[in-house]
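Subject: complex prediction, re-run

Hi both,

The earlier run crashed halfway through, so I resubmitted it with identical inputs.
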Amino acid sequence: MYDVVVIGAGVTGSAVARELSRYPLNVCVLEKAEDVCCGTSKANSAIVHAGFDAAEGSLMARFNVRGNEMMGQLAEDLDIPFRRNGAMVVCIHKEALGGLQELYDRGIANGVKELRILNREEALEMEPNLSENTQGALYAPTSGIICPFMLNIAMAENAAVNGVEFRFNTKVRSFESHICEKCGEPVWTIHTNNGDVQTRYVVNAAGVYADELHNMVSADKIHITARRGDYCLLDRECGDHVKHTIFPQPTKLGKGVLVSPTIHGNLIVGPTAVDIENKEGTNTTAAGIADLIEKSTGHVRNLPLRSVITSFAGLRAHEDHHEFIIGEVKDAPHFFDCAGIESPGLTSSPAIGEYVGGWFKERLGVEQKEDWIGTRKGITDPKTMSFEERAALIKEQPAFGRIICRCESVSEGEILEAIHRPLGAKSLDGVKRRVRAGMGRCQAGFCSPRVMEILHEELGLDYEEITKSGGHSNLVFEKTKGEGRES
Amino acid sequence: MSTAYDLVIVGGGPAGLSAAAAAREAGLESILILERDKELGGILNQCIHNGFGLHTFKEELTGPEYAGRYIDKVLELGIEYKLDTMVMDIAPDKTVTAMNRTDGMFQIKANAVILAMGCRERPRGALNIPGYRPAGIYSAGTAQRLVNIEGYMPGHEVVILGSGDIGLIMARRMTFEGAKVKVVAEIMPYSGGLKRNIVQCLDDYGIPLKLSHTVVNIEGKERVEAVTIAEVDEHMKPIPGTEERYTCDTLLLSTGLIPENELSKSAGVELSRVTNGPVVNEALETNIPGVFACGNVLHVHDLVDYVSEEAKKAGENAAAYVLGGCKDDRSGKEVKVIAKDGVRYTVPVTIDPERMDDLQVVRFRVGAVYKNASVAVYLDDERIQKRKKRIMAPGEMEQIILKKDQLLAKEGLKSITVCIEQD
Amino acid sequence: MEKRNLTCIGCPMGCQITVTMDNGEILDVTGNTCPIGDHYARQEVTKPERTVTSTVVVLDGDRPRISVKTKGNIPKSEIFACLEEINKVRVHAPIAIGDVIIPNVCGTGIDVVATRAAGVA
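This time it finished cleanly. Structure:
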């Protein structure tokens, strides 16, 4: 019997798990995919938003601003890359300048610090590639860029190190609850494809599926739409086309198509916003990409779109009222929702975790464990080292001298670490999200066979068993020549 | 190990090997080849089909055999090389930073550098092909490695996008290993591959080639389940209503090669917007004196024989540069070679009539298919050559040969123009 | 009378050649624009041949596969029979380039030879 079962190992579930790991609780995370960070958390803008967008007084505003505040220290504690590059909302129509003031006022009301309105000249001086039509901009220096994979992975890893159990490839099918005869409290039985799990509390952090889980236990239905966003990622050589995260003025459908450097030095353009029925519909479309290109060129000029290295689509878990649903479900005691976590969900995740952790601390009357470890040492990154440091590292561990992914200069040593850490990588994409092998301009053409070889050797997997991302995403079939199948 | 060499060659594929041998034969002793793979030979090792070496060896060899001949030569000449070694940086002063497991991180001061890094395949992302991103989408070269070197089947039912030679070769290769290749789609109205490959890799096995077609959707969340192709109009936009869906588990991409010049950039080498390779003079020397380029890193070749030939020149010129005391002897009298009217680019881009050999090969590619058109060469306004060609196609490299005396005889020569003329 | 349509492989022109035959006898070759096409077409309709390249399994070697080729052309009709023989072969390292892997494959008189060396693991 667990004290708390968290459903979903995305950024929200992992943040909650990490906060729960502070306390002497028996916590388990159930994840339907083979790894953490496989849904909404892996395909988004990777922006740590300042917090001027969300409506005043909303949970979105509150958790966004708090999450932004927390991110600096958290990134330091978990040893993940994060930088406050600042954001600009660019106004390109004179008559819309009032909109900037509105955003500014909302931001101040939400508690966003250091906001400033720039005139045309100031904006263009800071960001010469803004549209010639630029009339002014809202500048938010606290906005930042982060590696969304590492934020998610690091929080999960840290939770695991502090005793949280993770069960992958485990999909929830249904719930049952009964009142415990001994304690008189509700107990949940979770039916999964991997057997039943019993727990005193459930935290629903199931992303685009959070409504389905919620609706299994509550008469008060919620509805989440998968809102697809297409993105293009551009080569590092144009990573400094803009230095800040550049937004157009927001519309009803969201913050619009942004152009931003990524923490790893690429340039990201996106997302579009299309509501779809299919909650697995992460396919890009020709229309989506065309729309993206058109919209992105409105507020940024000379966008080097011939340097696109990949395009992808992510799904936002859009709740009908465009608000986070966070709290115990009224007609389902001990069932706690973290639903409707769309943008600014990534930014908000640490704050949501903090809030949920605090709720359980109070509810269960627990205190932080003395031996809780709040910090984590990241995967060794030779790229941040001096020549001498790197030479010394290779001398000690020669695997760091063998480059596997040449586009991103990822060594075998980093991949070995990614595989052998707690909650280590088991697939090509798992390796990619942890150390960026295959993330570069050749998009894994060169390193795939080499990473497969390492997975084969380190995890004892046959080549035929190695997947791109778990499930049936096998990379190769049988050996040629019928080898191994001789009678 | 020594940390200074007269010549460092980055890349041990056909270009690097040929350049190394030529430099040694020209009298240069201190040469080091740095190769990132675990063996010499480069991509030829996985090109197990035949058709290599007709020009060089007057016989048809397979890729590994062709590479083998140059490897043997390099070994016989006792040229030093390091395998599994990645060059991380080339500084403008020709300090090469590299690393491997045994030597760790090291720096070499070179008097001359030959860039011979080859090229890479254009990935799906660069094509903006819509759809899912499942397993089973491979560049043709990656699939070729998996089948030929590792011995695994990357798929059973295959659609191929792009009819470059690697794509055609892989269509036959997958067929030989028992896979069903359903269609090859080519976005251009012509194939970039050799006619021989279209006949012997596709026609022989009844594999349809659909010109002016591209992939408009990829289905399958985990593994590829189907691919939809459609016809494109003259602007290469898919025509609605022409979609055809093929169930398959694999999509191979053979959609172009890109010279791999990240290191060249870090060295400060000027690159061409057309070839994505370095801008070189008649000595195959870049804007940095003592830094030379050859092979597919310079411009993508059609035949490896031409790579070897070009690399030989680069090797000889690098040796001459070092043996001549590493002096920048550019006279400032270089004449620009202008590519015009159907000629996409030329290699070299400048020629110094005084420094050039008696005969100078200028290689180029055309931008479209030309039948019964002529290649013309002008010295300023004077046409000095006009050669009619039955056919010229973008998939094949063309060449002209310039004579030193002819260039020297032209007073005040400002430019050499290579163009296509239709009658 | 029988007509066979071919694409010439002599050059990028890729002439569409039509060969008219009667009982195996060539009556006419049309569509070619040069003598190469005529020669190719006559060869291709009477005695089409190909060089076959593939790989074979190496046991105890430093690589799992080595590449092989038919040392000369074999009849086009024998390609798949030849591949079947190649697929069955298991060779032991060491192997040198040129080593005969299958002598006289499918009775064609042509050997299958190694095009890549393999050392002992």
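The longest helix of chain B spans residues 304-323.

- K.
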